[in-house]
Design a protein that fits this description.
This protein has helices at 36-50, 75-85, 98-106, 122-125, 129-136, 171-185, 204-211, 223-230, 245-257, 299-310, 331-347, 357-364, 379-385, 391-399, and strands at residues 15-19, 54-58, 89-91, 112-114, 141-144, 166-169, 191-195, 216-219, 261-263, 267-271, 280-284, 293-297, 314-318, 350-353, 373-374. It is α/β, with parallel strands linked by helices. The chain folds into two domains: 6-176 and 390-399, Phosphoglycerate kinase, N-terminal domain (Rossmann fold), CATH 3.40.50.1260; 189-348, Phosphoglycerate kinase, N-terminal domain (Rossmann fold), CATH 3.40.50.1260. It binds 3-phosphoglyceric acid. 3-phosphoglyceric acid (3PG) is lined by residues 21, 23, 63, 148-149, 152, 378-379.
Length: 401
C-alpha cells in the first residue's frame, strides 16, 4: 500500500499525534547547540496547525535507558519550538498516564503539547503493546515525521500505528524517503556515490547496495587506507581496519565485475602525528612514508573527484573525505563539496547528503543550503541508502488506514 501523506488525511478539529525526531545535541547547560532537526519538522507542524489541528508531539532525546534523566528533558526543545512556531508549547510532565491524557484531551485547535522524553520509559524501545496503546490514546490521527528514528521499531514509531485508525507520513519523512530511497531506484545518471569516514565496517551493506546501482564510486576518508591495503599498498601509520581488508579487496573485484568505476585516492595529505598543527606533506598513494598517517585526500584526487561530481546527474555522499574536524584536513571535503554545489546550481545535479558526520561537515562548510537534500537522519540515512527496510516507514505502508 502507498503511504498516506498529509494531503490524504483530514485533521481539522482533530488531535494529531506527531512523532518527531527532536533528538538534538545539548551542551552541559542543557542548551541546544544545533536546532536543525526542530526546524526541519516545521513544514509539517505549521501545515497541521493551519489546517486547524491540535498537536500532541512526541520525541526521544539521548539514550536515558528507560530511566528519568533530568538532563535529557525535552524542556529546552519545547522552548525553542515555541520560538519557531511563535505560540506557546506546553511540556507535559510525562509521555503517558492520566495527567498527560487529561492535558491532551483539553487541547483546542492551534494548541501544542509536547510529551516528555519517550525513552524515560523502557517500554518505548521495547515496543511494548500497552505503552503503544497509551500513546495512541493521546491522538485521533497519527503522523510520523521522525525520519531520523525510522530505523527503530519502537512504540512511538511502530507499535502506536497499530492502534490508531489513520496514520500518515509528514513532509520531512516524505522528502527524506524521496531522496534517500526513491532517488536510488531511478536515478538521474551518471549516479556517483562518495564514501568516506573512518570505517568500512558498518558500511558493508551500503557498499553492497551501491555497487548494484552506481556508475562511479569515489572512496576517501580513513576507509581508503583499508582499501589501499587491499591492493597491497603500504599505508604507514594510517588508520587501518585489518579485519576489513578482505572486504575491501572483494569490493574492488566486484566493482570491476559489475562495470562500476571505483576510484581510490591517487594522492594523500599525510601528517607526522594526529594533530591540527602536525607537519604535513602531499604524497602519491604508493609513497606513504612509514610513521606518517593519511589525513586528507591530496590535490590530484580532489581534482579527480571534483571532475566526476561535476559530470554527475545524481551524487550521494556518505562520510567526510578527511579529518574534517581539523581545519587543515578539511580541504578535500571542501573542494569536492564546492564542486558539488556548482554542479547542483549550474547543471541541476541532485546532491544528496547523508546525515550524521557528513551533514555536520557540510554544515560546517556553510554549504548545506546549496545542496538538493541534506538528511536529518544519521543511522536512518545509512540504513535507507543501504536498501534496508525502515520499520517506521514500512508500518505506514502496511497500516496507513
Ligand atoms: C539519531 O540521532 O540517529 C536518532 O535520533 C536515533 O537515535 P538513537 O540512535 O539513539 O536510536
Amino acid at each position: 500500500m502507498k503511504r498516506k501523506t498529509l494531503e490524504d488525511i483530514q485533521v481539522a478539529g482533530k488531535r494529531v499525534l506527531v512523532r518527531v525526531d527532536f533528538n538534538v545535541p545539548l551542551n552541559d547547560q542543557q542548551q541546544i547547540t544545533d536546532d536543525t532537526r526542530i526546524a526541519a519538522a516545521l513544514p509539517t507542524l505549521k501545515y497541521l496547525l493551519e489546517q486547524g489541528a491540535a498537536l500532541v508531539l512526541m520525541s526521544h532525546l539521548g539514550r536515558p535507558e528507560g530511566k528519568i534523566a533530568p538532563s535529557m528533558s525535552l524542556k529546552p526543545v519545547a522552548e525553542r519550538l515555541a520560538q519557531f512556531l511563535d505560540r506557546p508549547v506546553q511540556l507535559a510532565p510525562d509521555c503517558v498516564g492520566p495527567e498527560v491524557e487529561h492535558l491532551a484531551l483539553q487541547l483546542r485547535p492551534g494548541q501544542v503539547l509536547i510529551l516528555e522524553n519517550l525513552r524515560f520509559h523502557p517500554e518505548e524501545e521495547a515496543n511494548e503493546e500497552q505503552f503503544s496503546r497509551q500513546l495512541a490514546a493521546l491522538g485521533e490521527v497519527y503522523v510520523n515525521d521522525a525520519f531520523g528514528t525510522a530505523h527503530r521499531a519502537h512504540a512511538s514509531t511502530e507499535g502506536v500505528v497499530h492502534h490508531l485508525a489513520v496514520a500518515a507520513s509528514g513532509r520531512l519523512m516524505e522528502r527524506e524517503v524521496q531522496y534517500l530511497k526513491d532517488a536510488l531506484q531511478q536515478p538521474r545518471r551518471p549516479l556517483v556515490a562518495i564514501l568516506g569516514g573512518v570505517k568500512v565496517s558498518g558500511k558493508i551493506e551500503l557498499i553492497e547496495n551501491l555497487l548494484n546501482k552506481v556508475d562511479t564510486l569515489l572512496i576517501g576518508g580513513g576507509m581508503a587506507f583499508t582499501f589501499f591495503k587491499g591492493t597491497g599498498l603500504e599505508i604507514g601509520a594510517s588508520i587501518l581496519e585489518a579485519k576489513r581488508v578482505e572486504t575491501a579487496r572483494q569490493t574492488l573485484v566486484q566493482a570491476e565485475a559489475r562495470g562500476v568505476e571505483l576510484l581510490l585516492p591517487v594522492d594523500c595529505v599525510v601528517a607526522d602525528r594526529f594533530a591540527a598543527d602536525a607537519q604535513t606533506q602531499v604524497v602519491a598513494r604508493e609513497k606513504i612514508p612509514a610513521d606518517w598517517q593519511g589525513m586528507d585526500i591530496g590535490p590530484q584526487t580532489r581534482q579527480l573527484f571534483a571532475d566526476r561530481v561535476s559530470a554527475a546527474g545524481t551524487v550521494i555522499w556518505n562520510g567526510p573525505l578527511g579529518v574534517c574536524e581539523m581545519a587543515p584536513f578539511a580541504v578535500g571535503t571542501r573542494e569536492v563539496a564546492q564542486a558539488l554545489v556548482r554542479a547542483t546550481g549550474e547543471r541541476g545535479t541532485l546532491s544528496i547528503i547523508g546525515g550524521g558526520d557528513t551533514a555536520g561537515a557540510i554544515a560546517q562548510l556553510g554549504l548545506s543550503g546549496q545542496m538538493t537534500h541534506v538528511s536529518t537522519g544519521g543511522g536512518a540515512s545509512l540504513e535507507c541508502l543501504s536498501g534496508l527496510v525502515l520499520p517506521g516507514v514500512a508500518v505506514l505502508e502496511r497500516e496507513g488506514g
